[in-house]
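Q: Could you fold this chain for me?
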Amino acid sequence: MIKEAKITRVKCPACGYRLFDKGDQACGPVQTKCGRCKQVWEVELATDKFKQISGKPKARRKGDSASP
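A: Sure. Below is the predicted structure, expressed as structure tokens.
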């Protein structure tokens, strides 16, 4: 019997837009560009740590719950 992989949605830390989906066994670094804010991120899949590669740091959108 094949075990189903648990899929997690990874969102952009700057704007909250969906970057990609990852499986529970995924590991290693991945570089991706956000389709909304155009920032490039390097994501470590095993730890979910983000490192900004390029793009200006922008504040979160006004409607987000994390905004002041």
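A (continued): Strands lie at 7-11, 18-23, 29-33, 40-44, 49-54.
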